[in-house]
Every structure is written in C-alpha cells, then in structure tokens.
Amino acid sequence: MTLSKSVTGRSLGLKLLLVCGLVLLMGIPALFISLISYDRAGRANDVTREVSERYGGDQSVLGPILVAPFTTYNKEGAIAHIGQYVVFAESGNVTLDDLTTDTQQRSLYKVQTYQASADFKASFTLPENLSALNAGRTINWDRAQILIGMSDVRGLRDDVFLSVNGEAKRQFEPAISGDLQGQIGRGDDIYSKSFSSMPTVMSGTGLQYMSVNVGDLIEKGSFDVAALLPIKGAQKLTLAPFAKSTKAAVTGDWPHPGFQGKFPPETREITENGFKATWSVPFLARGIPARGPAQTLGLNSFNKRAMGIDLVQLVNPYQKVNRALKYAIMFIGLVFLAYFLFEVMIGTRVHAAQYVLIGLAQCIFYLLLLAFSEHIGFTLAFMIAAGATIAATAGYAGAVFGGTKYAVRAGIVFAGVYGLLYVLMQIEDFALMVGAITSFLAIAGTMYLTRNIDWYGITKTDA
C-alpha cells in the first residue's frame, strides 16, 4: 500500500482537522479534573492550617529588647504624645540545639510539628548620660522592661524566666497589647494609666509579647540577660535579629530543611539524620538603628530581616499532579496523533467517537493519578495510572486495527509518551525545553510520514 492516496477515498485533511478539534475538546474534561486537583490541594492547605494552629503554627520569635515609656509635652505643659523608646542589645545569641519534629496526621493529610528550646543571651549597654537620649522627650527608665515576642504565645510549653547577670530569675508576664503612641494627651489621667499598663507599641510586627520590669538595672549602665523559651510550632520557625549583632545556631532532626529569610545560613550541614545551621547578622546588615522611638525604627519589617527554617515536605502530590495537567493537551494530542498515523498507515478508519473514547481515557489517567497520589505517593500512583491507561488504549488499538501486533506497537508508543511525561515531572528546570523538543520531533515525524498523502482525497486507494 502507498500513502500517496487517501486511505478511504475521503479527505484525510478534514479528518486531521477533526482530530485536532477533538484534542482541544478534551481540554474541557482535563480542566474539570484540574479544578478537582486544586480543590483537593486547597482542602489539604485548610487541614494543615487547622492542625498547625493547635500546635502554635508558624512561629516567629524575637529575643530580648529593652523598652521604656516616654512622653512629649506641648507648649502648655500637657502631655502631647505617649510612646516607647527601644534599646537593642549590643550583642545577642540564640541557640536551639534540640529542635525535634513529629508528624501529625488528620485523614489523608500530614503536618510537620516541632518542639524546641530557644536559649537567648543578650548584653545591654546604656550611655553614661541617659538624659542625652531625651531629645525633646522624657523617658521613664524606672518602668523599663525587657520584652520577648513570638507570633503565637499558645506555642509556649512552660513559663519563661529572665536571668540577669546570672542571678535570680524574674518571671515574664503577658505584655498589655495596644498602641497609644499616637494618642494626644488629655492630662495626668492618661499619663498614669498609660504608664501603669505599659502597653506595647510593637503591634505592627505581628508578634505577641511578654515582659519583665528591669527599671532597677538601668543605673548599672550595662547588664547581661538570658531567657529560655520552650516553644512548639508547625512547619516553620523564624528568628528575628534582636541585637545590633546577632548570632544564631539551630540543630534539628529534620532531614529536609529549607532556609528562608533575608539572611541565609553562614554554615549548614544536612544529613539523613537532621541538620545544623548557624547565622551571623552584623549591625549594618540588619539595617535597624541601635536605639530610638519605636515608631521610627521600622520594627514592622522584622520578619523581612529574619532567619527562617522550613520543615519541607518533599512529596507534594497536588503540586506534581497540577504540573502534569498543564501538559494534558500536549500528551492527549500525541496519543491522538499516534492513532491517526496508525489509521493512515494501516488503512482502517477510526470514527470520531472512538477518538473521543481514547481522549476520555487519557483524562481519566489524570483522575487516577490524583486519587492514588493522595494515598501512595506520586511515583507509584503514576505507574499504576499510566499502566492501566496504556493497557486500555493499546488493547483498544489492537481491537480497532484488527491485530495483536498493533496492540503491541501502540503499547510501545504510548509507554514512550507516558515515560516522557514522567520525565518532565522530574526535571522541572528543563521540562519546557524537553516538552518543546518532543513536540517538534512529533510534528516533524508526522510531516515526514505523511509527505505523500493525498489530503484532498481526490484519488482512489491503490491496491
């Protein structure tokens, strides 16, 4: 048989256009499956958030800072402004050498939680002449406090105490939330109420604070403090650079950490048994002045300057399934193109309805992939879904074209197609290049094999 004439006496050109139209039509069920995948991914995120909240969620921690209330007065001598003056430690160090993880499961979904003890140490040095800091304001150093912040204090596992110069410990108490720095005074009543409650003006940082009064230490000029913060959380831990010069060291048992934030680790060691990482953030790199009124320091940008650790989940079935669905039209098109070439070369007509069945089988592949991935992981799910789809479409090819040898040939072609899809899922950086080259080769090969076809169907088939 020669390919120079129409196989059926009808226009193969119109048939190819019909096949192309059916490929696009198959994008509709593929779209609905994509919506199902995104819905399942959203459900997984909701469950993750619910479970995380019970364990403290993503925790951001800010080490000891010194804060004292201040006031400014108008010309009449009345209070015009109430705020807080912040002094950062000269040097600070935080160590977490016991970060242990646990997996919490709810239905199909798993959430990584952790426990750790953050050991903070900070050294404060005040100017010999404290009045030089006033500059138009009156700072009440008698009510100075050490503050420590974290994003969700429900993640505390025990009470927290402050050790001063290695001596007796002082227990932290909840800091009163609120922001009075922008209020205009209405006399001594506001003055007394504001300073008695010592509200924090750090609400823009997104942290909750605990405080200890250290007004009796100010006259010493310099002092060292330490605090052990036993925390729990889920998925992510962020440490803010709380001193002019901050050093951090974290050791954990999670073998797949992700390091986020503005400052990458200075050193890191990752093994199958866990990780170790250290950070060093110098004063100039931190980009925040050593002291000043809270509203002028840009404290709401602490998280942008943080050192972060993610407990990365290597297997995210929804992410890979969604990536596979992006290539759905291309791979359905390759399968249709293979069937069309079989039709042309063998001389057996394939009805449009049969192409639709083949396309629906390809779409069900993605549904099987999604369903199995939730339970057994992406790789094994891909093998099962691809194997079942290849067997169905290759067997159907054998029935349509009338021979076992055609089923075998189709099986080899379709196995290559799904093998390519799996490869694309594994090489994310080069997926576009490989997909583009494959598509070009498929079209070029089709052009070569059909170069002598009578697309108009004017001539009759030669025997």
From the structure above, extract its key features.
463 residues; alpha+beta; Immunoglobulin-like; 2 domains; ten-stranded mixed sheet; disordered N terminus
Q: Structural class of the helices, strands and pairings?
A: alpha+beta
- What's the number of helices? 10
CATH topology of the largest domain: Immunoglobulin-like
Q: How many individual domains? A: 2
The CATH level-2 architecture of the largest domain is identified as: Sandwich
Helix content: 25-40%
Average of the residue pLDDT scores? 79
- Give the biggest beta sheet: 10 strands, mixed
Distance between the termini: 6 Å
Helix and strand topology:
Blueprint: H1 12-25, H2 27-54, E1 59-73, E2 79-87, E3 89-106, E4 109-125, E5 138-139, E6 145-150, E7 161-164, E8 169-171, E9 173-174, H3 188-197, E10 208-213, E11 222-234, E12 236-240, E13 243-252, E14 257-261, E15 267-271, E16 274-281, H4 283-286, E17 291-293, E18 307-311, H5 317-326, H6 328-346, H7 352-376, H8 378-401, H9 404-426, H10 431-449
Parallel strand pairs: 1-12, 3-13
Antiparallel strand pairs: 1-2, 1-5, 1-6, 2-17, 3-4, 4-11, 6-10, 7-8, 7-11, 9-10, 12-18, 13-16, 14-18, 15-16
Report on the architecture of this protein.
Helix content is 38%, strand content 29%. The chain is of the alpha+beta class. It folds into two domains: 12-43 and 317-449, no CATH class; 80-311, Immunoglobulin-like, CATH 2.60.40. Strands 1, 2, 5, 6, 9, 10, 12, 14, 17 and 18 form a ten-stranded mixed sheet that branches. Strands 8-7-11-4-3-13-16-15 form an eight-stranded mixed sheet. α1 (12-25) packs parallel to α7, α2 packs parallel to α7 and α6 runs parallel beside α10. The longest helix is centred in the N-terminal third of the chain and has 28 residues, at 27-54. The protein starts with 11 loop residues before the first helix and ends in a 14-residue tail after the last helix. Mean pLDDT is 79; it is low at 1-9 and 177-201.
